[in-house]
Design goal:
The complex is a heterodimer of chains A (251) and B (578). Chain A is α+β, with helices and mostly antiparallel strands. In chain A, the strands form 2 sheets. In chain A, strands 2-3-4-8-5-6-7-9 form an 8-stranded mixed beta sheet. Helices cover 41% and strands 26% of the residues of chain A. A 9-stranded mixed beta sheet of chain B has the order 1-2-3-4-5-6-7-11-10. A two-stranded antiparallel ribbon of chain B has the order 8-9. Chain B starts with a helix and ends in a 17-residue tail after the last helix. Classes of the chains: A alpha+beta (251), B alpha+beta (578). At the A-B interface, strand 1, helix 1, helix 2, helix 5 and helix 7 of A face helix 8, strand 9, helix 21 and helix 22 of B.
């Protein structure tokens, strides 16, 4: 079915609130899903595939900071969705980069990492150069790098598969973000290792996808949509004669 | 937009203070000005030579069926498509919980091909229950003002003009009950609409659709009268057509908009205040004095013509009528001076009601079109409430103490101060008010009350600063993630000139009507007729030019530009209050 971007954002916001997200975090999570969907990156699929995790993450908005100094931070994502507290971890890195020129943050053990792009977009819009990197799987290893130029909400994205796996048994369930206040960090792959490019999204492709979405509406799975509306309905108060008078007297 | 606002403020103009202007009762006394969206639309249509015409009027003898109007602007073509149907009286309600209406309509970008028409025919009459096409910019619905509608048909069918008294009771044949834009139910997102040259300003597409509906309302009654008495029926004369507006019935559903779009509302207020400051800074000529006296006469006649059912509003109108007479006496006696307008405002502030003070704002802005009309181009706002996480907490404390002093020092513990809670009902998500502690749903309260939330932030901030004097804003949001939304809002709104609406939306004495009227005044509504404190009926486009005026090159430019305070065709400008 077709929906508008505003509908998607509005229903997601209410759905996250219905799951138990605090108001500001429901706003952010909804914007993250809507951003992905509007650029043709299937945010609804990313949301739906980890919906149980999102529901379980709803009440845990406070990230667990394991280490931080002026330039670096390491945060434990506690195997929760990035929708629940990714925004705060990223604001922490943003503050450090604004003060120190460059910052690095590692969010360990987090889920639904694709969705973090929506929040990175907002930080880029606020004048920050941003690059995020994560590995998808162990064998074969696939890597994703996403780069935003400062003051642009549209990234460049590269996903590639390495021909050979290094000797490494650290779980690939984190994401590393680098922010720079004064120089760009766009992804240009230069590697001596053999790799296969699996996906490449440039700014122009993504902008075209967004224009199309705004002109024609966004296509979503009706079942997922209904599921979100079910969560959203939890924010509504059952009607009664008394509540009807709460909107003023009938004419 | 914020930068623009600040750039303007660097000038020597003296703006009224946020404490004065953002007071809820004053906002609830605002009148429409020449910068309101309805006035802007008719000016733009004239300047850009829009061509609007009815291309199809497929109605049966009862006026039911379909009508299409084509709008051709310099750059694009649009259509307004209207579906009119029979409606049983017991189904006619202005509330959002209604499921059927006398008519439904939409504004479409581009041509109406058979496929689109088929989709619209199936969905537009359903409104919220339909799945609307993304080429629709606006959807809306309207109900008849039954007595006026019937009286008009009977008079025209009998070969007579209707009694103008009907339009003093209700200045319209139809009133809309919701006008949806911005992606609602599948229609086009505002992100797309604001890229167009024609509708980039807020609510401009909605106003265009409503304006065309006014024209249809006349075409329809004339059609029904002619079908009823083909040999005898006459058409409505031009003066009466112009005096006919289009109504609107608005409830609490509008209130959350003002709270959820603080940057936009602050910008609208800034534009209005900037226009007032520009007007007050002008050195008045004798001609200016004569013009404002003429406007005062017209405004008193308008008030005398305005019949409202709500007793408190009627009393406010009577008081304003009386006070305008005093204003005219003042204007005739005080010597012409460079500071005349400032003297007038100073005198009004101490001696006159808020209703009259804000009427004077409207009149002063009306005097100087060349100096103020360009402000219409900056009524939009980039709406991003962003965090500044690296802001030292001590600075955030100072911002709260400077810009939110009205909020952080108030008492929210007494029963009256936390009397109401706002929530959304399962019935079409209608916003409603409940009494805290008495009604169900408090745990699902909408977070609309900014003031008490700002106070909670302030208290937690003080505590954190005691422990960490060099803490940053990000430390506060990490410690209290639930404050994220309001801290963003505090930081963002502190950078605007007018900031927040200064009210405790929980308070027992809070009047939602003030919120509704503030927004409606910017849209261009007049004849405010509250029904209790949560519903209001208003009129748009009464006195506005007709489509035939645009098509007639001999029409005076004043017809398109100077139609504030509409007066009944035969009214005397010195009319007494009834």
């Amino acid at each position: 079915m077709k929906i508008s971007l505003n509908e998607l954002q509005s229903v997601c916001r209410k759905a996250f609130a219905g799951m138990g997200f605090a108001a500001g975090h429901a706003d952010d999570a909804a914007a993250m899903v809507a951003w992905m969907q509007s650029y043709g990156l299937d945010g609804m699929k990313a949301l739906n595939e980890g919906l149980e995790c999102v529901v379980a993450s709803a009440a845990s908005a406070r990230p667990n900071v394991i280490y931080q100094d002026a330039d670096l931070a390491v945060v434990d994502g506690q195997h929760m969705s990035v929708l629940s507290s990714g925004n705060l971890a990223l604001e922490l890195a943003f503050a450090k980069a604004r003060i120190r020129g460059l910052s690095v943050i590692k969010i360990r053990h987090c889920r639904q990492r694709q969705l973090i792009m929506g929040y990175l977009s907002r930080l880029a819009d606020r004048g920050m150069n941003v690059t995020a990197f994560w590995r998808h799987s162990q064998t074969p290893i696939t890597e994703q790098v996403v780069g935003f130029r400062a003051n642009s909400s549209v990234p460049s994205i590269r996903v590639f598969e390495l021909a050979e796996s290094p000797d490494d048994d650290v779980p690939n369930d984190g994401v590393t973000i680098v922010m720079a206040n004064h120089f760009d960090l766009l992804p240009t792959i230069r590697s001596e290792d053999e790799y296969t490019l699996l996906a490449r999204h440039d700014e122009s492709d993504l902008l075209a996808a967004r224009h199309h979405a705004l002109a024609e509406g966004l296509t979503v799975d009706p079942e997922v949509w209904q599921q979100l509306k079910g969560f959203a309905a939890k924010t509504l108060v059952e009607a009664s004669e008394q509540s009807r008078s709460g909107a003023g007297p009938a004419e | 937009m914020t930068e623009l606002t600040h750039a303007f403020d660097a000038s020597a103009l003296s703006l009224r203070s946020p404490a004065t202007v953002m007071d809820l009762e004053r906002l609830g006394s605002f009148s429409p000005t020449r910068l309101s969206f309805a006035r802007r639309l008719t000016r733009m249509m004239f300047e850009q030579k829009w061509q609007v015409a009815c291309t199809e009027l497929a109605l049966d003898a009862s006026g039911h069926g379909k009508a299409i109007y084509r709008l051709q602007t310099p750059t694009r073509r649009y259509h307004v498509v209207i579906f009119s149907q029979h409606l049983e009286d017991d189904r006619r309600t202005d509330r959002v919980i209604a499921e059927a209406w006398d008519l439904t309509f939409c504004l479409v970008e581009g041509e109406v091909d058979p496929e689109l028409m088929s989709a619209m025919t199936a969905n537009v009459p359903l409104q919220e229950a339909g799945r609307q096409h993304p080429r629709l910019l606006v959807i809306s619905r309207a109900n008849k003002s039954l007595r006026t509608f019937q009286a008009f048909i009977e008079a025209l069918a009998a070969g007579q003009q209707p009694n103008i008294e009907h339009l003093k009771q209700a200045g319209y044949l139809y009133r809309t009950t919701a006008v949806y834009g911005n992606g609602k139910f599948g229609i086009a997102d505002y992100d797309r609409v604001k890229g167009s040259e024609d509708f980039q300003q807020p609510f401009s597409a909605q106003m265009a659709a409503v304006y065309v509906l006014r024209e249809f309302s006349v075409d329809q009654v004339e059609h029904i009268a002619k079908q009823s008495e083909p040999g005898r029926a006459v058409t409505l004369n031009k003066d009466t057509r112009r005096y006919l507006g289009i109504g609107n019935s608005t409830g609490l559903g509008m209130a959350p908009f003002l709270i959820n779009h603080p940057q936009l509302i602050s910008q609208w207020v800034w534009v209005r205040e900037r226009a007032l400051a520009v007007a007050v800074s002008q050195s008045p000529t004798e001609g200016d004095r004569e013009k404002i006296l003429a406007l005062c006469h017209r405004a008193t006649a308008y008030l005398a013509d305005t019949r409202v059912e709500d007793e408190p509003q009627r009393a406010r109108n009577v008081e304003a009528h009386t006070e305008l007479t005093q204003v005219m006496a003042w204007l005739e006696q005080v010597p012409l001076d460079d500071t005349l307008w400032q003297q007038l405002l100073d005198w009004a502030q101490t001696q006159l009601s808020l209703e009259t003070q804000e009427l004077l704002t409207t009149l002063l802005i009306e005097l100087y079109p060349q100096q103020v009309d360009s402000l219409n181009d900056v009524m939009g706002a980039d709406e991003n409430l962003d965090l500044t996480p690296d802001m030292p907490l001590i600075q955030l404390k100072q911002i709260l103490e400077t810009h939110f002093d009205w909020a952080i020092h108030a008492d929210y513990d007494c029963e009256d101060a936390r009397y109401w809670f706002w929530y959304q009902s399962a019935e079409k998500e209608e916003p409603r008010l409940g009494v805290r502690g008495e009604e169900l749903g408090e745990e699902k309260e909408l977070a609309l009350a900014v003031a008490p939330t700002a106070q909670r932030v302030y208290r937690d901030l003080i505590q954190l600063l005691d422990e960490q004097p060099r803490a940053l804003t990000v430390d506060l949001v990490m410690a209290f993630p639930e404050h994220m939304r309001v801290i963003r809002r505090i930081q963002t709104m502190a950078a605007t000139v007018y900031g927040e609406i200064r009210a405790n939306l929980w308070h027992r004495d809070m009047k939602p009507m003030h919120l509704l009227r503030a927004k409606l005044s910017f849209l261009g509504a007049h004849r405010f007729d509250p029904r209790g404190d949560r519903w209001v009926r208003v009129t748009f486009f009464q006195g506005a030019p007709l489509l035939s005026d645009y098509a007639d090159s001999s029409t005076s430019p004043d017809v398109f530009d100077d139609w504030g305070f509409p007066v009944a065709p035969e009214a005397e400008l010195t009319a007494a209050m009834p």
